[in-house]
Amino acid sequence: MSQTSGYTLPYRSLGGLIGDEEIGVLQEVLTSGEPLSQGRWRERFEGAFSALLGVRHALSVTSGTVALEIAIRLLELAPGDEVITSPQTYQATVQALLGTGVHVRFCDVDADTLNIDPALLGAVATSRTRAIILVHYGGLPAAMNEIMKFARAHGILVVEDCAHALGALYEGRPPGALADIGCFSFHSSKTITTLGEGGMITFDRDDWAERVRRIRGNECDGVYRETGGRLTEVPKALYPGLAYTHDCLRLRAPGTNATMSEPAAAVGLVQLRRLAALSARRRRVAERIDAHLAAGATFRPQVTPAGSVHGHHLYTCFVRPGSGVDRDALVRALEERGVEVWLRYFPLHLLPEWRARGHGDGECPVAERAWFDEQLNLPCHPGMTDGELDRMLAVLDEAVAAVRPRSGTHVE
Ligand SMILES: *Cc1c(COP(=O)(O)O)cnc(C)c1O
User: Fold this and answer.
1) pTM here?
2) What SUPFAM superfamilies does the entry give (predicted)?
3) Which atom of ligand 1 is nearest to the CA of 199?
């Protein structure tokens, strides 16, 4: 339970996420005398991650945001190109495109899942569409078969924002291995964490792996040609990067330092081993909320399509319009009773920076209706005890009763 939030039931908590094993491995790394950057822990974490996903490359970086920024660089977009994304995601998904000449088109979501509605892609895509950057909202895999079929037919690359999706499955396969690039976050609110901040970028292409290694390692992202030139007497290891062996034909962009530290990677490795248990606990919490809500008529659930396993980063449900319950009044009633509610996410196209680029009300009516009138995200994290869960469900019933009109002004 949070000591600082003032809520009896905080939206999220670190409880259950960090345990003795994480503290043990930190002790091991910190007392090993080995360098705290660019060592064997990072390699082991990346190796375990790529094996889990079944992809050729998993390269760690300092955050999910940086993973997405680098993914966008790999796409080599030009001014005038277009990218399709979801309005129902965290701003980091396409923030790197703000201030560029690349045009973002928001594809509205499916009302049952809050993932991109693949039936709308045809209307949103144009001849300039180069990429789809989608999110598996809340940990529920997007409709990848339909999206990939559309993308492949039109020569469009697909990036999965998997910040919520670790532990999820789509037809038996993990997100991050379902499209061209996967981007993960290990922020402390996510399924696993690497000391609060961290990220991973996943794909199969070897040429991209070379570019990501250069970008995250403070070298440049360029197009090079071997010079065939001879090294001097001094060993090559003493020259930076490709000095003396290559010419730079074209610079795409300078690199940066996005190296995950050894303590972070070591904790990530331990967390990955605990992933199944952490996911199982999330699932149990979500299933109990599902069962409780299904017994009443106030809420409609987020629908998990057949063949998908939900990662349960967020617990999402919707107030039924005919239930007589006003969503905003319900949120206030929950907050007054100590249950912290976050509505995730404010429709991205309505943020001021995107409105300044011409986006606005009515562009994604399904996402807008969900966020403004129906959507509710309840606390769901592995640290919740059965007692806390019982208490939350009791408070939810109480809050619904408190805001439901007493006179028969509605029909159920
Ligand atoms: C958390 C999150 C990110 C960013 O990850 P950070 O590690 O916090 O930078 C990106 N996209 C989504 C959907 C997220 O929830």
Assistant:
1) 0.95
2) PLP-dependent transferases (SSF53383)
3) 7
